[in-house]
Amino acid sequence: VQLVESGGGLVQPGGSLRLYCEASGFPSSTLVMNWYRQAPGKERELVALIHGIDGSTTYADSVKGRFTISRDNTKNALWLQMNNLKPEDTATYYCYVWYRERHYWGQGTQVTVSS
Questions:
Q1: Which residue in 21, 25, 26, 57 has the fewest CB atoms around it within 10 Å?
Q2: Average pLDDT of 107-112?
Q3: Computed from CA positions of residues 66, 63, 2, 100, in that sequence, does the dihedral angle turn out positive or negative?
Q4: Cα 37 to chain center, whole Å?
Q5: CA–CA separation, 103 vs 73, rounded Å?
Q6: Other C-beta atoms lying within 10 Å of the C-beta of residue 36
Q7: Percent of the chain at pLDDT above 90?
């Protein structure tokens, strides 16, 4: 099982980034897939999740209306479109899946929002 994130970087406030997570080694199409983030000195928090079967989504209040989570089950791919980024969005972003009673995390991708 492997999760690999990419797409992070440095962006100015108000800018956009699109994160990508490539999943392999498990049938991701039926699983809930998640984006978490962790800022320095803070606990890791759920940003958004998407169900595999019906595609329903849930967002943290802090990102509602700015972030969009999406997936392509045929490609085992997960995205997070982040618009109108704010300095408080600065964090390492992780792709996460719970599968067969185990936690699987990607290595993370750094997002820095600064002028």
A1: 25
A2: 98
A3: negative
A4: 8
A5: 20
A6: 21
A7: 87
